[in-house]
Amino acid sequence: MRIHVPDAEARLRVDTGEVELACLTWGQEGPWVLLIHGFPDTPHTWSEVGPALAELGYRVVAPYTRGIPPSTAPADGAYDSDSMARDMIKVLDAIGAERARVIGHDFGAGIAYTLAGLAPERVEQLVTVAIPHPATIKPRLSLLWGARHFVTHRFPWAVRSFSSGDFAQIRVLYERWSPTHDWPEEEFEAAKNAYAAPGGCAAALAYYRWVNAPSEGLRQRIACPSVVVGGRDDGVATEADFEASRRRFDGPVDVVMVPGGHFLHREHLQPFLEVVRGFFGPATPPPKPVERRL
Questions:
Q1: Which of the 8 DSSP states describes residue 35?
Q2: Most buried by CB count within 10 Å: which residue of 61, 125, 184, 248?
Q3: Is 291 inside a domain boundary?
Q4: Helices H, strands E: what count in the chain?
Q5: How far is the C-alpha of 230 from the C-alpha of 183, rounded, in Å?
Q6: β-strand pairing of 100-105 with 59-63
Q7: Does residue 2 lie in a domain region?
């Protein structure tokens, strides 16, 4: 049986009034970037992206989302996207960021879309990874089959099933969504450790019971400059799915397909970073040339 080990790297703690969010951070100064992880994952999914952004002159914060240890679970058991987006606003408040650039992957992309809808004044630029805007997704047989865990994770025995075999289902999902990548076993260690904590796996799967909850944030159109990033080898979503996201934006938006599957930022880091660098630009604009008068 796996024994949970507290994450010593998650030193920043943010009390939202409903939950306490543990966060990873990178960088000492510069504009803020908020990174939001998905499932089955933790903020360690950004372990290469965060330092790379810090090297570009950004400060980076990446919370464990609510209920994923060492973040605490909400007393009311709410895991809807609006509540989780408001958690992110509390994180920005805590670090003193009036605005931030936001990158979200998987469930984190859903939270990021919601955040941009609920609080557009807080989002400087938006990058969503591997998930089209939820309001544009249309069911089809291949999509329903690829996302069948949205149903199975709601069953009463889901926690027992998912945690069996040292959380062997994590690899199953990674290989289903990113079928062209050869995943080393250590890729799953951070998620297994988080889910091994008391209540961790139950909280992660509870997200699926809230996925269809009404969302004020997802009903809003997005005004900030945005990039929707998809993997060319995604095992479920297609380029047409990502292109359909354009319908939810009033502001400038680009759809970029890069190498990799659902976890493209882990599979092919450099192409993903090229997209982000090109979109965000330098953290500090170059100084204006001094006009000399003769």
A1: E
A2: 61
A3: no
A4: 12, 8
A5: 19
A6: unpaired
A7: no
